[in-house]
Design brief:
about 270 residues; Metallo-beta-lactamase, Chain A; seven-stranded mixed beta sheet; six-stranded mixed beta sheet; 5 helices; about 25% strand; Metallo-B-lactamas; Metallo-beta-lactamase domain-containing protein
């Protein structure tokens, strides 16, 4: 049976004879149903269309970005980080083809896949099976797994160390289990998905409950996230849409949290 994919959010559902009646990811207030209505595809259909490919770019000695072109669904960027002992894929994209598989095989494979939040679960079960990689999802977001793979690992608490270099940290905010990845490389690197979103002005970031529907987070949540972020050491931050904050990324994220709080308190501007 085919595993149907929602073309608006890119989430792949468990195999079924017919497409699901609804996409529960899109019908939730942090996402949206396409204005043309719910539509479905399969990974085979995407491959056979000949339209899509994954653009893989080396952005540093050990980091590669992966983005599907032309844009499919949300259009997020995933990151492949080559570790000393563990090769990590941070977040994922829906599209997977032979060319993509060959690239990762040439790089030594993928050992672990860590996901920031449910909007990027996409077709991760396919990726997990293809590369025999364990998938790490915070248990607070387990209810959003609509196509559970055999290698899915639910983690709990505030952090999970995957290796000497890679640690996951639960920040909450965008989702209850929303997480970021910290890489102990150079002066420290954070991969934030859009749990921490990079602004058009790369000196600032923001934090939202819903980006497409523009629902902000409350002040107490931002204060808690700021406190958790302040414990980390990092100089660079990569988000899910090819945006980078560097140098002094930590200082800029903390200043951004303060500005967000001032704005909600009515202290930042007078209009």
């Amino acid at each position: 049976m085919p595993a149907f994919i929602c073309i608006t959010c890119g989430t792949q559902y468990a195999p079924s004879a017919q497409p699901p009646a609804h996409c529960r990811i899109c019908e939730e207030e942090r996402q949206y149903v396409n204005i043309d209505g719910q539509q479905w595809a399969t990974l085979d259909e995407l491959r056979e269309s000949g339209r899509y490919s994954n653009r893989i770019e080396q952005i540093s000695e050990r980091i590669y970005s992966i983005t599907t072109a032309p844009k499919f669904a949300i259009g997020q960027t995933a990151y492949f980080i080559k570790g000393q002992k563990v090769n990590l894929l941070w977040d994922a994209v829906t599209f997977l083809d032979e060319e993509t598989s060959r690239f990762f095989e040439q790089q030594g494979g993928i050992d672990a896949i860590a996901l920031s939040h449910p909007h990027y679960y996409c077709a991760v079960a396919e990726w997990s099976e293809e590369f025999k990689a364990d998938v790490y999802i915070h248990e607070a977001d387990a209810e959003w797994i609509v196509n559970p793979g055999s290698r899915f690992e639910l983690w709990s608490g505030k952090s999970l160390q995957l290796s000497e270099e890679f640690t996951l940290h639960q920040l909450g905010g965008h989702f209850a289990g929303a997480a970021i990845a910290h890489a102990d490389i150079g002066k420290g690197i954070v991969f934030s998905g859009d749990v921490i979103q990079v602004a058009s002005d790369r000196n600032w970031t923001s934090f939202m409950y819903s980006y497409p529907n523009m629902i902000p987070l409350p002040i107490p949540v931002i204060k808690r996230m700021k406190q958790d972020i302040s414990r980390l050491v990092f100089d660079e931050l990569y988000n899910a849409f090819d945006r980078k904050v560097a140098p002094d990324a930590k200082e800029k994220v903390l200043k951004s949290a303060d500005r967000y709080i001032q704005a909600l308190n009515g202290e930042l501007f007078d209009t």
